[in-house]
Write a structure and sequence with these properties.
single chain, alpha/beta, Rossmann fold, six-stranded mixed beta sheet, binds adenosine-5'-triphosphate, binds magnesium ion
C-alpha cells in the first residue's frame, strides 16, 4: 500500500532519511519510535506530501505520489494527524470535521456530512459536536485531531504522538478507537513516545535514527535490540520501553514523557 524507495531528506546537516526504503501493507499496524528531533514527524511529511524528498520515490496504492501535494495524497487515502493540533478554534467540533471531509477528503454535501458524523461517532466526541473547538480539553482535542483525519476516509492513517500527556485510562480509550478504525481495514502508522500504548496496538515496530531504521519487526524484539536500547539510553523512553516489556503490577503510572506539554513538544 505504501512504499518509500531510496528516500533521502536533509535539512542542511540534519539527516531525516538517508536512502531509506520502507513499505507498509494494507491494514498493517506499524509503530515508529525514535529520540526527539530524529525526524519522525518529517518522515510523516514525506509520506503525506507536506515535504518533498531530496531524492527517492514515494508510492501509494500502486501509484507514484512523490510529486503530488498533500491535498492530492489525502484524497487518495492518506490521512494524518499533527503533533501540534491546530483546529479552527472558532468553529464547532462538527464544522472542523466537516471541513476535513470536504477539503481533505474531497467529499461533497451529503457524503461529507455523513463522513463527519461518522468520524465523530467513531472517535467518541459526537456529544461535543456543537461545542466550539476552543472549549475542548486535551483528550477531546486528541480525539478531534483523529476525527479530522478519519473524516477524510483514509486507507492509511498517520498518527503523530496522539497519546502524549494523557492518563493511562485515556490512552486505553484512544487505543480502542484506533483498533476499531484499523479493524475496518485502515492501515495505521503511529509515531509515539508512549511505547506502552504502541505495543498494545501495533504488530510491527521500528526505530528511526540517523536517517535509517534500526530494527523493523516484532515489537518486543525491536525494543530488546541493543542498538535501539543504546539510542534511548538514559532517556525516559527507555524506561517506558522496559516497562512495556515488564508490565508493572500497579499499572497506573502516568503516560506523560518528560517535556511533553499537550503535544507542543518540538
Ligand atoms: N522545515 C524544516 N526546516 C528545517 N529544519 C527542520 C524542518 N522541519 C524539521 N526540521 C528539523 O529536522 C529535525 C527533525 O524534526 P522532526 O520534528 O521531524 O523530529 P521528530 O523526530 O518528530 O521530533 P519529536 O520527537 O520532538 O517530535 C529537527 O532537527 C528539526 O529542527
Ligand atoms: Mg515529531
Amino acid at each position: 500500500m505504501l512504499q518509500l524507495d531510496h528516500v533521502t531528506k536533509r535539512f542542511g546537516r540534519v539527516v531525516i532519511a538517508e536512502d531509506l526504503s520502507f513499505s507498509v501493507g494494507a491494514g498493517d499496524t506499524v509503530g515508529i519510535v525514535g529520540p526527539n528531533g530524529v525526524g519522525k514527524t518529517s518522515l510523516f511529511g514525506l509520506i503525506s506530501g507536506d515535504l518533498a524528498p531530496n531524492s527517492g520515490q514515494v508510492s501509494f496504492a500502486g501509484k507514484a505520489v512523490t510529486k503530488l501535494d498533500s491535498a492530492a495524497r489525502c484524497r487518495l487515502g492518506i490521512g494524518r494527524t499533527y503533533q501540534v493540533p491546530r483546529p479552527f478554534i472558532d468553529m464547532t467540533v462538527f464544522e472542523n470535521v466537516l471541513v476535513a471531509a470536504q477539503q481533505g477528503g474531497g467529499l461533497r454535501r451529503k457524503a461529507s456530512y455523513a463522513a463527519a458524523a461518522e468520524a465523530l461517532e467513531r472517535t467518541g466526541i459526537a456529544g461535543e459536536a456543537n461545542l466550539p473547538a476552543s472549549r475542548l480539553g486535551l483528550l477531546q482535542r486528541k480525539r478531534l485531531e483523529i476525527a479530522r483525519a478519519v473524516a477524510t476516509r483514509p486507507t492509511l492513517l498517520l498518527l503523530d504522538e496522539v497519546a502524549g500527556g494523557l492518563t493511562d485510562p485515556e490512552v486505553a480509550q484512544l487505543i480502542e478507537i484506533i483498533r476499531a478504525i484499523n479493524a475496518e481495514g485502515t492501515a495505521v502508522i503511529w509515531i509515539e513516545h508512549v511505547v506502552r500504548a504502541l505495543t498494545a496496538l501495533v504488530d510491527r515496530l521500528t526505530c528511526l535514527y540517523g536517517g535509517a531504521f534500526i530494527g523493523d519487526g516484532e515489537p518486543a524484539a525491536v525494543l530488546a535490540n541493543p542498538k535501539v536500547r543504546e539510542v534511548y539510553l538514559g532517556s525516559d523512553i527507555e524506561t517506558a520501553a522496559v516497562e512495556s516489556l515488564q508490565p508493572s503490577p500497579g499499572g497506573a503510572t502516568p503516560s506523560t514523557p518528560r517535556g511533553e506539554t499537550d503535544g507542543e513538544s518540538s
